[in-house]
Amino acid sequence: MVTTPAVTCPLDIDVANAEAFERLTTADPWVVDVGIARDVIPGYADNLVLTSGAPMPWSEYVGGQREALIGGALFEGLAATRAEAIAGFESGEIVVGACHDYGAVGSLAGIYTASMPVFVVENRTHGNVGFCNFYEGKEPRRLNYGCYDQGVHDRLVYVNEVLAPVVGEAIRRRGGIALKPLIARALRMGDEVHSRNAAASVLFSREILPAVLDMVAEDVPNVRETMLHLAENDYFFLRLSMAAAKASADAMAGVAGSTLVSAMAFSCKGFAIKVAGTGDQWFEGPPPIHQGKLFPGHAEGEITWMGGESPITETVGLGGFAQACALSLQAYQGGSPEVMIERNREMYQITHGENPDYRIPLFGFRGTPTAVDVRKVLETGVLPVMDVGLAGRDGGQIGAGVIRAPRECFEKAAAVHAQARHHR
Predict the structure, then answer these.
(1) Cβ-proximal residues to 221 (8 Å cutoff; 6+ apart), any chain
(2) Distance between CA atoms of 180 and 177, rounded to whole angstroms?
(3) How far apart, in whole angstroms, are the C-alpha atoms of residue 344 and residue 335?
(4) Residue 49, SS3?
(5) pLDDT tens-digit profile of 6-39?
(6) What is the DSSP letter of 112?
(7) Rounded Cα gap, residues 77 and 32, in angstroms
(8) Spans of the chain below 70 pLDDT
(9) Contact 44, 38 (CB under 8 A)
(10) Cα diameter, the chain
(11) Cβ-count burial of 265 within 10 angstroms (0-12 exposed, 13-18 middle, 19+ buried)?
(12) Residue 354: beta bridge partners?
């Protein structure tokens, strides 16, 4: 299990927050490899299935997140039938883990199993590492959206056997790829690098092109299929932005006295945050507040929560904190350019500072609002906004929209922070 780095810092809150902010914004995430989860994630056991959100016992997972865990067990061969998978989880023969506890982040239900390939992203400034598994493809029915059938199985096998080996080889041949410059440029090209990754995915494909051409000349198998997949899937880069954000945000963890948020995530049960000054403790609240646009044929009553850790991007000043970079998202998740701009400006009220590398052209290249401060959320009443996909109760993606974190998480974090200061 991964532990976040320990950092010594004065207990003065403003000094601590300045230190945490500096560690976050000086992070230098590079994708250096693609490896199999059991081989590269510390402490990963063959019978472990990871999922999104604050840790919970098996009995508390419901709906699509529970179904996704069962699907992960079936895919990994930990059980032959759905009933066997449930019995395995109940007995502890199959173990449920929380992605963040292993240095990983999961999209929606966030399912990892031992044989899945993951991006390995190294923060070259501070030495910590973040992981994220691969995007399954643009089919609405995906394991991370609570679905498991033959089609889902086949696409997961395709990722394992076709895509991951080629992408990993290309990354290694390039000696790793710096992700911060790609993200910064993608923001200038219309992405916010959470719900829109079209530019970033193209930029990544261009970055690996020299290695890919060499691999074609050497008749390396599956190169053509892989590059066609990247060309057809604008969300490919999301998993790289998530791993980069995780490797960056974890550098804040352990700064004593800091009130800056180091992670935001949710499960089928509710929303939760971590704070730099309180280490690995999660502060939990109810499900997030949502507003979105549904795909044709779906209704509001179908929306369900089954996990999600992609808000790690907002944690580092991307996604909803860079909405004004990606006004075309209005056609996907609803709203209007005016509303998106207003939301984005609102986030400056609750963050410690402006990102020196991630900038918003529409705001005169002002840095994105970065590092949510628990104190400012409670003082202003402004809740962090995040861009997300919306899952349906029967599985699959049924729309997209924005969510806001519930206030209760910040109230709990502030209370624990104050108590800790009182006892020092």
Answers:
(1) none
(2) 9
(3) 13
(4) strand
(5) 434 445 999 999 999 999 999 999 999 999 999 9
(6) B
(7) 29
(8) 1-11, 421-424
(9) yes
(10) 65
(11) buried
(12) 369
